[in-house]
Amino acid sequence: MASPYFFCTALAWLFLSPALQLPRRMIQARYIPQMPLAGVVRCFWYWEGTFQGHTQTHTQERLMPTGEPTIVLDLHEEKIRVYDWKDPSRFEVFGHSILCGPRSEPFVIDTAQQDRVFGIQFRPGGTFPFFHAPCREFENRDVDLDLLWRDAADRLREQLLEASSVEDMFQVAEAALLARLVRPLELHPAISYAARSFSTRPHRAKVAAVVDSIGLSHRRFLQIFTDQIGLTPKAFCRVQRFQRVLRQVNAALHVDWLQLALDCGYYDQAHFIHDFQNFSGFTPSVYCARKTVHANHVPLV
Questions:
Q1: Same domain, 256 and 156
Q2: If both were cysteines, with which of 32, 138, 163, 183 could 168 make a disulfide (CB 3.0 to 4.6 Å apart)?
Q3: Whether residues 273 and 153 fall in one domain
Q4: Is the peptide bond before 36 cis (omega within 30 degrees of 0)?
């Protein structure tokens, strides 16, 4: 089963054979908040799904970096485990809720732990208004939410468990998030502009050109961007370019790797392969052979 992490609308069984029409219980839902919260939160999501009598073909998935943070709450009693992508036999154990920081490298999750999960998917820099620590402290890290929010993390999970419907869960989470504000919801205007530029045109945007257009010194821009987004501008832009590659690979029936590399702003194919392996842990051909309908989730067999 594909994990819901980093995805608002995961339909994990779309790629199953039509012959495998087994008894199932599956609920997936998303909620997009109104402004101003929508400026920092991409969506709230809920996933509950099991197939009765079905044995999964894989127990772990490697998740690709997106540069976006997420809060994940497991609504069963097992604790959350996150695995080392270079050595999936090694893992960290957390509580029932974690903050997954912005990433520029992959990580591995256990598919067996995803029967009932609630998440808050943030936009780039979206966690900055809700935590006292700057986002750079969460780069490529997972942190127990109760270490950051203390009793409020447990209260949120209890309220989600007590909610009478998924719709009520969304309202509970939205209210809880607004109650945790420690800064204004808006990021620095220059940072919002830069993140938007890097996200929409990662194959064309140049950090120096963006800095020149916003009126901040390079040093000051680097400091504010890293504090609020959690990655350096260069790392964030590279991750967004990698995400552009994944979208194109998953939409294509046949991939011309050289042309794809050039279209996405790489100098040559060697540069493209090097970046792809750094961000995914796979060669492009191995990723293509293992891809599913979910571009950021790759089964580990």
A1: no
A2: 163
A3: no
A4: yes
Could you read off the pLDDT tens digit of each residue along the chain, which spans 301 residues?
334 444 443 333 222 233 333 344 678 899 999 999 999 999 999 998 754 444 456 688 999 999 999 999 999 888 899 999 999 889 999 999 999 999 999 999 887 666 789 999 999 999 999 999 999 999 999 999 999 999 999 999 999 999 999 999 999 999 999 999 999 999 999 999 999 999 998 888 888 888 889 889 999 999 999 999 999 999 999 999 999 999 999 888 788 898 988 888 898 888 999 999 999 999 999 998 888 888 898 998 7
> Which residues are CB-neighbours of 212 under 8 A, at least 6 positions away?
none
- Provide the residue type at 235 as one letter: A
Are 155 and 285 in a shared domain?
no
* Closest alpha carbon to 259 in 286, 284, 234: 284
